[in-house]
Amino acid sequence: MAEQLTTPRDLLAAYLRQMLWIERQLADHVLPRLREQAHSPDLRRGFGRHLLETEGHVEAVREVLGDLHVPAEPEESSGFRGLVQEHEQLVGRVAEDDHLLADLAHAVAALATEHLELATYESLIGIAESLGEEAVGIRLREVMEQEEFALEQVDSAMAKLLAEKVESARP
What we know:
Blueprint: H1 8-37, H2 41-67, H3 78-92, H4 99-130, H5 134-169
């Protein structure tokens, strides 16, 4: 059983450990697989670029935990695990030769993940700053800005894919 959370600082540390787990899952498993599975060059390139950023996020979160003098042991996120499972189920229902639809599913999954990360980082910045941990807030804000850029890139790639799908569906 995980330790009891009794203070905002405990909550901050617990969510940071979850973000460490999420960022590691993304860097080690999810983004490499999405980059490999994507057919769209824009999407593939975006996943590759974000993979490099995410490797930096792992280190940033680990450093923030160290700055807070709390253990940097990752804690699983059931929310993120659910997003991954949902994506795998949906992609499994797409016809093998429908590359465009599969890429759309990958883009939707990436968008959902970015929104989860952004919401969590935004909350963590607020908690850190309210605790007087300005340096932690600044470091997390840097990570959040990269996540916002990744969201914009995936959103743009998805718009392009949707335009292609609409165009290909016209008689």
